[in-house]
Design a protein that fits this description.
heterodimer; A: 578 residues; alpha/beta; ABC transporter transmembrane region fold; Rossmann fold; four-stranded antiparallel sheet; 20 helices; 65% helix; elongated; B: 567 residues; 3 domains; 21 helices; ABC transporter-like protein (chain B); ABC1_TM_dom (chain B); ATP hydrolysis activity (chain B)
């Protein structure tokens, strides 16, 4: 049983809060006993006032005092139950989120790239929320529900067996009725959900592409299509809402009938002398409240089911094998930047070999250009160099040490990486630049920014280096963001570089600044550069030509031209105007 | 008042629903009275017949209430769903008439949540209003009235206790609501941190920043847990507080009731009824407080819906149709700015019939803005644009856009088939027209392979970028437009296909505007417009511009062997 295992693992998360859980259950039990005792006391109090000159004040006051005590106990313990379960719930939610976040950092990129980020996010946010809602509140409700039912039955049997049996036997009727309606409506709710999905899909497609809709004067057709879906949603909505709304009155009518029966049967029992009026009043209170725990419990089960499904999704990720580091890592003291790629074979999918027997020897300070049309898979090579992915066969070594024998941390700190797809976080410009060197002084940061041609525009910002960037740096232009990323590398000053040249998303002036910054940076450093400009390519010591994910050719500019292959075609189409 | 408009066609249904709910509540209020009669007249006076009579009353009340409830639910469903349906229709119509400025301001994702989630919320609110808003205040007031009918002095206890319950609910809600909002905003932080860490996973790992990022996350999540517990503990007071208050009321009833019974002015059954009414008030107040929460949520939703309905396009339609004219397009000192800033300044040029015009410049130079003005996606801020001799503002939208075949920068197709997509341009297009368009757009080869009726998923996700681009070009050609605008629409094509496409386009009888970043795509044009920071810095043929336009020279050089800025 999958569910059983999930449940077990969930319980292991609760383990740290075991004491809290036991205390919550104990308080809940006490709370329920007093909650149920109060109507009995009220009934007994009523029995003391039979009629004119027949009120036993002494006993009445004693009963009232007991009611006060019972109410105080009820309130106190119900407050304690809530507090304890709050503490437990929110702490467990926190533990879950922390564990999941940590795991996201430890998972191989292969996993993260293959998953939709939206999905990973919803596991972090929505799923964990549902776990805490459903499971933990569910537990207390389930326990409280069962306790209440048992307690009510015991109290009722103690007062009068026959009437107790009426309540015990008739009440489940209302549950049966409501569950029958619920199953019947399920189909309609599903249908409604489907049409709603259809509607939002349609709206998304048409609003998202309003330009095309307008250009082709398609507005009227859209209105018609929308109205058609909208009408279907109306019909199905009325049906499902009406049927769904029947549950409540139906259970209520069953309850009213139970209530009436208790009242009438009770009245005859009082006449027969087997019952007091006060006891009858206690019974009436019980009859009114008896359905509630049943409803609570049935709600708990649906909540539990959702919670378990969500927990399953979270555990699936926590169960993924995180990255492991080699046990005895080597380090490089004074990196020179020679890289040897030997017989590397790599593929993302088993059946689709992208790189086969790839060899490349890079001497310190050399520049390697990676060229190819857009989408040719240049990132694949970067993925391998940075050890975001592991080659299937072969090895990559830096200064004679296999990168798999180093920690990822040490190995990655040897590279500085600037990609076109820039990444900045929410924080000040200063912090963003100092990302690679936390202890940098402001002078160092300004120095690096100047080298990266970023100083000019930073100074013009309202708060200069202390200006806040919004999420993903959306308030800067693409070019400016890239300059910041370059400044970041300038500051970190790594021995080797991985760069991605700008294609077209930047205006000519900024592009020139970035280019200058790149050139400064590349001096004396081993550099891998995804190149678009001819000058970069011509100056490169070696060129790797990629196409559709494969490395197709490799060599110097002259060698490749002479081969008259793909590079030749690419070169002449891209760099020749006519 | 949009809600009035949306509920109006269903106002009678709503009123009927409301009425039946009231009737049901009235029945419910009678129950404790009937029980009191059973005790005071049936039991106390030993009258089994009275008890039997009351049995029928009790069951009658139950069944009658049930029938009323069913009728109410039916009309509530009808009117709330009808309300939502009309609201969705109104919103979609409003959005359909938006111009691009409006859409940019709103953004697609929020429009979708508004038309689905927010309308749902309001729809529920209408149903709840009919079902609960009438019921709970009615029950509260009814219980009070019933208490007064039984005994005026004891009813005074109700007058003290009820406001106390109401106040304690209000106090706790008004203190927890801001906390819940704060929790939500921290949760947003958590989610944006997660997103940032997923999208930046390579950079974070490249810089070995996992630990620091985790600390940032930990700080936020701890803050959330703290606030949650704070809010939770405050909310935990609600139940105990109201329990204490309502039982205080019951104790007072027992105490005063005892004295009154002893004096002979009250009966046992009446005490039981009073206790029932007291409990009823508490329950109703709980329900009512939930309705208030629903209204708070609903008013936010309503505000968001009204924003959608209140927004109108500032682009006003004319009523003319085009006539024959040799001059196709004229820009006369046109300037245009978005909210964020100037996009075009003082642009003037003329395009004659059947000319091919190239438009080139870096990103942000204003190329897309320029061509977006022609079909009136936006209106120029100053200056005028003429098509076929008439200002474009004088045309009907339909007749203006009928002239233009527009291929947008992002190639999108719609759910359906290849054929249904191509027919967007011209519903009556024959197979021959389609064939021809496919041929020109270089799409024939792959369409022949999969067939015209091949399925296209939303956005055209199931065909490759290059294929999609060619299909969007074909879609525009099927329209047989007089003006064809290609906004950087060949970027995913390889150079050979691009060249073939250009050659084929020349055979069409259209005026063509090609926007591109590639010199090779526009070098052959009759006229090239060079844009830089929203200004025209050169107009002419490739050769002319090479001679006397510095910006053009720079572009050409940077794309060929332009190393002039290297030292």
């Amino acid at each position: 049983m999958k569910n059983k295992n999930t449940l077990k693992r969930l319980l292991s998360f609760i383990k740290d809060y075991k004491i809290l859980l036991y205390m919550a259950l104990l308080c809940s039990a006490i709370n329920i006993i007093f909650t149920l005792w109060t109507p009995v006391l009220i009934g007994q109090a009523i029995d003391q006032m039979i009629g004119k000159h027949e009120v036993h004040f002494m006993i009445l006051y004693k009963k009232i005092a007991m009611i006060i005590f019972s109410v105080i106990m009820t309130s106190l313990f119900s407050y304690l139950v809530m507090r304890l379960s709050n503490t437990m719930t929110y702490n467990i939610t926190r533990d879950f989120r922390k564990a999941l976040f940590k795991q996201y950092h430890q998972l191989p990129l292969k996993f993260i790239d293959a998953s939709s980020h939206g999905d990973l996010m919803s596991r972090m946010i929505a799923d964990i929320d549902l776990i805490s809602d459903g499971l933990l509140q569910g537990f207390t409700n389930l326990f409280a529900g069962i306790m209440t039912i048992i307690g009510t039955i015991v109290f009722m049997l103690m007062i009068n067996v026959k009437i107790a049996l009426i309540v015990i036997i008739l009440t489940p009727l209302s549950l049966a009725v409501s569950s029958i309606i619920a199953t019947k409506t399920y189909k309609y709710f599903q249908e409604q959900l489907k049409i709603r999905g259809e509607l939002s899909g349609f709206v998304e497609e048409m609003i998202g592409n309003q330009k095309v809709v307008k250009a082709f004067s398609h507005e009227e057709e859209n209105k018609e299509n929308f109205n058609e879906i909208n009408h279907r949603l109306f019909i199905s909505g009325v049906k499902s809402q009406f049927l769904g709304a029947l549950i409540n009155p139906t259970t209520r009518v069953v309850n009213s009938i139970v209530y009436g029966s208790v009242c009438i049967f009770g009245a005859f029992s009082v006449l027969g002398g087997g019952l007091t009026i006060g006891a009858l009043s206690s019974f009436l209170t019980y009859a009114n409240q008896y359905t509630k725990p049943f409803n609570d419990i049935s709600n708990v089960f649906t909540q539990l089911e959702t919670a378990l499904a969500c927990a399953d999704r979270v555990f699936n990720i926590l169960d993924e094998q995180p990255l492991v580091e080699c046990p005895h890592p080597k380090t490089i003291e004074n990196p020179r930047g020679s890289i040897h790629i030997e017989d590397v074979t790599f593929s993302y999918k088993e059946d689709q070999e992208l790189i086969k027997d790839f060899n490349l020897h890079v001497h310190p300070g050399q520049t390697i250009a990676i060229v190819g049309p857009t989408g040719c898979g240049k990132t694949t090579l970067i993925n391998l160099l940075m050890r975001f992915y592991e080659p299937r066969l072969g090895s990559i070594s830096i200064d004679g040490i296999n990168i798999q024998d180093m920690t990822r941390k040490d190995m990655r700190s040897l590279y500085g990486m600037v990609l076109q797809d820039t990444w900045l976080f929410k924080g000040t410009i200063k912090d963003n630049i100092a990302f690679g060197k936390e202890d940098a002084t402001l002078e160092e940061i300004i120095e690096a920014s100047k080298k990266a041609h970023a100083h000019g525009f930073i100074e013009k910002l309202k708060d200069g280096y202390n200006a806040m960037l919004s999420e993903e740096g959306a308030n800067l232009s693409n070019g400016q963001r890239q300059l910041l990323c370059i400044a970041r590398i300038m500051l970190a000053n790594p021995p080797m570089l991985i760069l991605d040249e700008a294609t077209s998303s930047i205006d000519t002036r900024t592009e020139r600044q970035i280019q200058d910054a790149f050139d400064t940076m590349m001096k004396g450093r081993t550099t891998f550069i995804v190149a678009h400009r001819l000058s970069t390519i011509q100056k490169a010591n070696q060129i790797v030509v990629m196409k559709e994910g494969h490395i197709v050719e490799q060599g110097t500019h002259e060698q490749l031209l002479k081969q008259n292959g793909f590079y030749h075609t690419l070169y002449y189409s891209q760099f020749d105007t006519e | 008042m949009y809600w009035k408009k949306c509920i109006k066609p269903y106002r009678w249904q709503a009123i009927i629903g409301f009425f039946f709910k009231m009737t049901e509540a009235l029945f419910e209020l009678c129950v404790p009275m009937a029980v009191a009669r059973v005790i005071d007249y049936g039991v106390a006076k030993n009258d089994p017949q009275m008890i039997m009579k009351m049995a029928w009353v009790l069951f009658g009340l139950a069944i009658g209430g049930y029938c009323c409830a069913i009728v109410c639910q039916y009309f509530a469903s009808l009117s709330s769903q009808g309300f939502g349906t009309i609201m969705r229709r109104e919103m979609f119509n409003a959005i359909n008439d938006y111009d691009y400025d409006n859409l940019d301001e709103m953004g697609t994702p929020t429009l979708i949540t508004r038309i689905t989630n927010d309308v749902n919320q309001l729809q529920d609110l209408v149903a709840m209003t009919i079902r609960l808003v009438s019921r709970s205040p009615f029950l509260i007031i009814g219980s009070l009235v019933a208490a007064f009918m039984i005994n005026v002095q004891i009813a005074l206890i109700f007058l003290i206790i009820s406001p106390m319950i109401a106040f304690s609910i209000y106090w706790i809600m008004s203190h927890t609501q801001p906390l819940y909002r704060k929790i939500q905003s921290i949760l947003d932080e958590v989610s944006s941190l997660t997103r940032e860490n997923l999208s930046g996973v390579r950079v974070i790992r490249a810089f070995n920043k996992q630990k620091e990022e985790y600390q940032r996350f930990e700080e936020t999540i701890d803050r959330q847990t703290y606030t949650q517990r704070h809010a939770g503990n405050l909310a935990a007071l609600l139940n105990p507080a109201t329990t204490v208050i309502v039982n205080l009321g019951i104790i007072l009833i027992l105490y005063v009731g005892g004295i009154k019974i002893n004096a002979g002015s009250l009966t046992q059954g009446e005490v039981i009824a009073l206790i029932n009414y007291m409990n009823q008030i508490l329950l109703s107040m709980y329900v009512f407080s939930n309705v208030i929460l629903l209204y708070i949520k609903g008013s936010a939703s309503y505000k968001r819906v009204v924003e959608v309905l209140d927004m109108h396009s500032s682009i006003i339609e004319g009523h003319e149709s085009p006539t024959q004219n040799e001059e196709m397009i004229r820009f006369d000192h046109v300037s245009f700015s978005y909210k964020e800033g100037q996009a075009l300044s003082d642009v003037s040029f003329v395009v004659n019939k059947n000319e091919t015009i190239g438009i080139i410049g870096g990103t942000g130079a204003g190329k897309t803005s320029l061509v977006s003005l022609i079909p009136r996606f936006y209106d120029a801020t100053t200056g005028k644009i003429y098509i076929k001799g008439k200002p474009i503002s004088s045309y009907k939208f339909k007749s203006l856009r009928q002239l233009i075949g527009y291929v947008p920068q992002s190639a999108v197709l719609f759910k359906g088939s290849i054929r249904s997509n191509l027919l967007w341009g011209n519903k009556k297009a024959s197979n021959k027209d389609i064939e021809k368009a496919l041929e020109v757009s270089q799409a024939k080869e792959f369409v022949d392979k999969i067939g015209l009726d091949a399925t296209i998923e939303a956005y055209g996700k199931n065909v490759s970028g290059g294929q999609r681009q060619r299909l969007t070009i074909a879609r525009a050609i099927v329209k047989n437009p007089e003006i064809l605008i290609l906004d950087d629409s060949a970027s995913a094509l390889d150079f050979a296909t691009d060249a073939k496409l250009r050659k084929a386009l020349k055979t069409l009888d259209t005026t063509t505007l090609i926007v591109s970043q590639r010199v090779s795509s526009i070098a052959h044009a009759d006229k090239i417009i060079v844009l830089r920071h929203g200004e025209i810095v050169g107009i002419g043929t490739h050769d002319q511009l090479l001679k006397d336009c510095q910006v053009y020279q720079e572009i050409v050089q940077s794309q060929s062997e332009g190393d002039h800025h290297e030292k």
